[in-house]
Amino acid sequence: MTFLLEPLTYQFMQRGLLASVIVGVLCAVMGTYVVLRGMAFLGDAMAHAILPGVAIAYIFKGDLLIGAGVAAVVVALIIGFFSKDGAVKEDTAIGILFAAALSLGVALISTMQTYAVDLSHILFGNVLGVSPSDLWLIGGLSFAILLIVAVLFKPFLVISFDPVLAATLRLPAELLRNLMLVLLALTVVVSLQTVGVSLAAAMLVTPAATAYLLTRRLLPMMLVSALIGALSSVIGLYLSYYLNIVSGSAIVLTATLFFLLGFLWKRMKSI
Amino acid sequence: MSHTPHRLEIENANIGYGEKIVMRDLSFQVPHGARVAVVGPNGAGKSTLFKALVGILPLQSGHILIHGELLGAHKDCVAYIPQREDVDWRFPVTVDDVVMMGRFGQMGWLNRPSKMDKQIVRKSIERMGIADLADRSIGQLSGGQQQRAFLARAIAQEPHILLMDEPFTGVDVTTQEVTLHLLDHLRNQQVTTIISTHDLNLAASRFDLVLLLNHKLIAYGTPQEVFVKENLAQAFGNSLLVMENGMMLVDECCPPEEEHHRLHQEPPQS
To answer: What does the alpha-carbon distance between residue A234 and residue A240 come to, in Å, rounded to a whole number?
Structure first.
């Protein structure tokens, strides 16, 4: 028991744990769409594309999360704009913007000297540095995103599964698709603090991919994914505390272990 | 039927993608509750026409009127059986989920399915003879069973107009039978059905009207009026073969690959 409770005597650990679980659940739920709609590349790209926003916010001493948020939404909308009507294939548009934004971010960062520590926090997360106001922001944004996903469950299901039905039912598919991109971008921003931009994509894809192996319907898939995301965050954070390893890595590795177990289970079942 | 008001009217429609016009100056009217077979060679623009009727492909000019109003004014009165490649078969949905999607338009996007919705879904599934598959993942079904699941969804939608693109191609005999039965049922329900097919026999025997297309309207009317040599020659060109006894053959078919090869094999030597 003390094994479990000891870390929680520190307030920063309490906040870190809470933030990790919230982000774990949020990424896992949004991740179901990422996995089902084949947007894994987009998730990864978006995570890296917010770098210039963070850099600019840093230069102007603004809030890093807000800088990241603005950059993510802008990038999401630009991707949507370029790939609209199939002018450029979506993955091509993503590839171009991903590289451009990353280069811009690195270029901005290279103009500064004291950036090393913050850069590593942005890349790999700094879950133990979650301030009370960060936690409020993470909690509030996550709640809002999950609420929208819950309310728009049916429209998102239809545009993902059968775009033609979406058209016959007169759904504003274009608008919903852009909204989904914006929600995905915000999810990446929220996970900036806990797992960092380089590992956010893993938290989007891995729990959802595991849940896909274990379930046959969308809602159960989301719930199982959320459970795996939350468990990975808790277990990963304890591992990071006792083994003294980077928390983001510990969380992602735990999620990967769940995936391997799910994969083996599926294999055993099908034999 | 001529005294009932026209329920679906296409007026001077140009349909295409970007610069390319696939269907030129198309005009025809479909009376309420009629069954229309859409016939023409491969690439004649049948699927393109369907996309326009569904509203996925905007017209470049002209109008589509349903009950005298522009397409889109009436919600969910057009149901469409999507082509196989438009659907993600690995998506985690059961047959029951798929059919319930047909009710989304009427139940409202924010509401939960009512008892009536569930009842309609169950009946639709039973009518298509796949009640025992209701809890299966859509990806586990055979091609014919998948088509029946989508037909069940289309009737659960309770549409006024049902569009089917090649429902008789590449499916098992049971599915063909069930689909034909469904057509009879829909006629009793006064549902207009518009179906593209390569089976000219079927078009002649089971449909009220035939729409013969090849990038434009070649002929439109009863099968007797449409299926004459001049029209078919105009639509199918060189792939039409007229036998001495007056029989006409069209070498234009897209059955599944295997069957295709079989049809083109030399007859066994005797």
So the answer is: 10
Our CA-based measurement puts residue A218 at a distance from the nearest CA of chain B, in whole angstroms, of 6
CB contact at 8 A, B42 and B3: no
Amino acid identity, position B259: E
Residues of A in contact with B94 (CB under 8 A): 216-217
At residue B99, the 3 state secondary structure works out as: helix
Residues B58 and B177 reside in one and the same domain: yes
Question: Count of CB atoms within 10 A of residue B232's CB?
Answer: 22
Q: How many CB atoms lie within 10 A of CB B205?
A: 10
Residue A158: its chain B contacts at CB < 8 A? 101, 104
Do B109 and B57 sit in the same domain of this protein?
Answer: no
Q: Where are the domains of chain A?
A: 2-265
| Residue A180 CB partners (closer than 8 Å, separation 6+) | A33, A156
Q: Give the integer Cα–Cα distance in Å for B14 and A92.
A: 31
CA distance A237 to chain B (A): 31
- The conformation of residue B94, written as its DSSP 8-state character, comes to B
The total of structural domains in chain B comes to 2
Structural domain contains residue B201: yes
Supply the DSSP symbol for B208: S
Residues in chain B closer than 8 A to A150 (CB atoms): none
CB–CB of A154 and B104 under 8 A?
A: yes
Domain A2-265, CATH 1.10.3470.10 — does that match? yes
CA distance A49 to A40: 14
Among the ranges given (A247-261, B59-73, B123-137, B212-226), the one the predictor scored with the smallest mean pLDDT = B59-73
Beta bridge partners of B162: B79, B193
Q: What is the pTM of this model?
A: 0.83
In a domain, B252, yes or no: no
Q: What is the mean pLDDT of chain A?
A: 86
- Measured at the CA of A41, the angle between CA A39 and CA A43, to 5 degrees, comes to 70
B56 vs A229, which has greater pLDDT?
A229
Asked if the model's pLDDT at residue A23 lies above 90, the reply is yes
B76 touches chain A (CB under 8 A): yes
Final residue in a domain of this structure, among B103, B136, B158: B158
